[in-house]
Design brief:
- The chain is built from 28 helices and 27 strands.
- α1 links the parallel β1 and β2.
- The strands form 8 sheets. A 7-stranded mixed beta sheet has the order 3-2-1-4-5-6-27, sandwiched between helices. It has a 6-stranded parallel beta sheet with strand order 16-13-12-17-18-21, sandwiched between helices. A 3-stranded antiparallel beta sheet has the order 7-8-9.
- With about 675 residues, it is an alpha/beta fold.
- α7 packs across α8.
């Protein structure tokens, strides 16, 4: 049995986001009716084989019958003009800007949304022009959020609640992707383009070897000291050890690393660094993905012949059960599907206030992936207990800070309760065991095997909480060809093909935003809500192994059948007097002296002519844009010393909308009084 067995989905919309959302729901077990026909609007149809895999293709003449049978309808009303209400089913509408705000209804492309949300302005070479990612990164973010909205709405209906709609916007996804860069905005600064560097962490970059580029990233003081020993500069940590000091001395540190890498081959660098536990890796091309060792090891690709195309990306669900490997490997012909009988399931008037009311989540997470996953679960109603080491999550101290706490950390951890526990201490271990025994979900991004060694791995937890849903997130997966190899976002982007698609004058670039982290955390969130639904059907728990490489490679799938010379971003940045505009066809600028015109003048002069362009906004402009404000994408919540900015939810359900309520607390010691709040009984000193 799979989480959505028996659920029927009518996939109507022409956006990539609709196709990818339907694919996710299909692999979770739904029967997806892929409605197609001549001259339907949208770009999805150009990649039919990609998006029809595992679905039931039906003709557009059967559209209404598909809608009548469906539990879930997927549309993209901005390009399809589909304004139907779909009140008798769950309706997920995936659009550029959503259904509210001054830009509602405009049908912008992924690259143009990257420009408007500040993403393109963070991406590019140092001192160069802004750059958009070469894959539809926001379409796929919207797809994952859309699938999570669908499963959440199905859960609400199953528990007696009403049918409802979800308004999912690429723009909302873009703003939600900025927690790495928004801290500079709150510190009164504008983030600069820095190539493959990380704005908050050093060292983190690509470095020249004797035969190519190697990516090297560290996040801890210990790893930095080890790295300095490998490159023959153990003196550097003696005066420059803390991350904030490293950021201030970036140039000196990067030059020392380059002096070492340039005298070694790429393979020699990766071998030496991986053996020492330092995150490093090469930049894999799109054409090399079918033979990439870890993707082959994990069976992350599907062999399904369609014309000259042989490989397809497998939707990245890996579980302890066999169902995740049961993926259709044939591309069905047009109109070959049948319409199932309608289930006749109607919504009720009761149900939970939020989809995950009553669900308890234990998070063992640092940095981005697990914290992002658990943050979204909290807004959906789950009670999230974040178990931190006694020294706290490292990201708490990342600059810029306010009141002793980093903005990045606070953005990533809203609506949780933090406990500081030493799990290697006997009493601390017992406390964590009791918390797990009381919970429904574990989310973690510890190094693969770490929880197992502590006695809290999947098999251990099954002995005392057999209905637990466990989700582990890592760079290359728990079951990996690179066992023990550390990985962080940029390393994973390099190994997933997306940097190959984002080349500026031949130089491969990461997406600026921590895209592999973000989508890894998103998919983990979807895995949790799907796993909870499967548990309701079977009474059993589920373990999910989320590989950031699997997710990121999947996002590049629409480029696999495109000739290499035609790959890359959709358009280019054109310089103006006050910044840049992004134009899908730069030739449309004609002989205009663009450098003498403002972005507003360029847009105002060309957009009315049907020319597709948008101003490239910096992060501050994006954060304060009227669309951002209208959609409540950055909200203030009261904390100890006044309002604190938090990210609003991109999962806009109509009847049970997620709630962003409060910043995370400073970590509390697990005293008997604190544990009593969570129903965990401990004797106090007085007893």
């Amino acid at each position: 049995m799979r989480p959505l067995d028996g659920v029927i989905v009518a996939e109507l919309g022409g956006r990539y986001a609709v196709g990818a959302c339907g694919t996710l729901l299909s692999q979770l077990g739904a029967t997806v009716l892929y409605v197609e026909g001549d001259d339907l609007p949208g770009d999805k149809w150009a990649h039919r084989a990609t998006y029809v895999l595992g679905k039931e293709p039906i003709s557009n003449e059967k559209r209404q019958a598909a809608i009548d049978a469906a539990d879930v309808v997927l549309t993209s009303s901005d390009i399809d003009g589909d304004k139907a209400a779909y009140e008798n089913t769950i309706h997920i509408d995936l659009t550029a800007f959503g259904l509210s705000g001054p830009l509602a209804g405009k049908s912008y492309s992924d690259a143009l949304i990257q420009a408007l949300t500040g993403i393109a302005d963070t991406n590019g070479q140092e001192g160069g022009a802004p750059f958009a990612a070469g894959a539809p990164i926001l379409e796929y973010e919207a797809a994952i959020y859309g699938a999570a909205a669908a499963v959440s709405a199905l859960r609400v209906r199953r528990l007696g609640g009403p049918n409802q709609s979800a308004d999912i916007s690429l723009f909302d996804c873009g703003i939600n992707s900025l927690p790495t860069y928004l801290p500079a905005h709150h510190d009164g600064k504008v983030p600069k383009r820095e190539g493959n560097r990380h704005p908050l962490v050093v060292p983190w970059n690509s470095f020249l070897t004797s035969d190519g580029d190697v990516l090297i990233c560290t996040v801890s003081n210990d790893h930095f000291s080890i790295l300095c020993g490998i490159i023959g500069r153990p003196d550097i940590p003696e005066t420059i050890l803390e991350n904030n000091d490293r950021v201030a001395n970036r140039g000196l540190i990067e030059q020392a690393i380059t002096d070492w890498t340039s005298s070694h081959t790429l393979a020699e660098c990766v071998a030496a660094l991986s053996e020492a536990g330092i995150a490093s890796g090469p930049i894999t091309t799109i054409d090399d993905l079918p033979t990439e060792a870890n993707l082959v090891h994990r069976n992350s690709l599907i062999r399904a012949k369609d014309g000259d195309r042989e490989f397809f990306a497998k939707t990245p669900f890996f579980t302890n059960d066999a169902w995740s490997s049961k993926v259709a490997d044939t591309v069905k012909s047009e109109g070959s599907g049948e319409i199932p009988q309608p289930r006749g399931e109607a919504g009720g008037d009761n149900g939970p206030t939020l989809p995950l009311d009553g669900v308890r989540v234990i998070e063992f997470g640092q940095f981005t992936t697990a914290p992002l996953c658990a943050r979204h679960l909290a807004t959906l109603g789950a009670e999230v207990i974040k178990v931190e080491p006694v020294t706290g999550d490292v990201a708490r101290d990342w600059d810029p800070r306010r009141d002793g706490l980093g903005y990045y950390f606070m953005y990533s951890n809203a609506d949780k309760h933090a406990l500081a526990v030493d799990m290697r201490d006997k009493e601390g271990w017992n406390i964590v065991r009791d918390l797990i025994a009381s919970a429904d979900v574990i989310v973690q991004n510890m190094k693969p095997g770490s929880l197992d060694r502590l006695g809290f791995g999947w098999k251990d937890v099954q002995k005392f909480n057999p209905s637990m849903v466990c989700v582990g997130i890592s760079g290359f997966g728990d079951d990996s060809a690179y066992e023990g190899r550390p990985a962080v976002d940029t390393i994973v982007q390099g190994g997933s093909g997306i940097m190959d698609l984002t080349r500026d004058d031949g130089v491969p670039l990461s997406t600026g935003i921590s895209y592999s982290d973000i989508t890894g955390g998103q998919l983990a969130m979807l895995a949790v809500v799907a796993g909870l639904e499967l548990r309701e059907r079977t009474g059993k728990g589920m373990s999910y192994d989320v590989s950031m490489q699997d997710v990121t490679s999947w996002v590049t799938e629409t480029t696999w059948s495109i000739p290499p010379e035609d790959r890359g971003p959709n358009g280019a940045a054109i310089e103006c007097s006050d910044g840049y505009v992004w134009m899908e066809n730069p030739a449309d600028a004609g002989d205009i002296d663009t450098k003498s015109k403002t972005r507003a003048a360029m847009f105002g002069g060309l957009a009315p002519k049907g020319i597709k362009l948008a101003p490239v906004l910096n992060v501050t402009e994006a954060a304060t844009h009227p669309q951002t404000l209208a959609r409540n994408l950055i909200v203030d919540s009261e904390w100890e010393t006044g309002p604190w900015p938090l990210l609003g939810s991109p999962i806009k359900l109509s009847k049970t909308p997620p709630r962003v309520r409060r910043p995370i607390n400073r970590p509390e010691a697990p005293t008997p009084e604190v544990l009593e709040k969570f129903g965990i009984r401990r004797r106090s000193a007085a007893e």
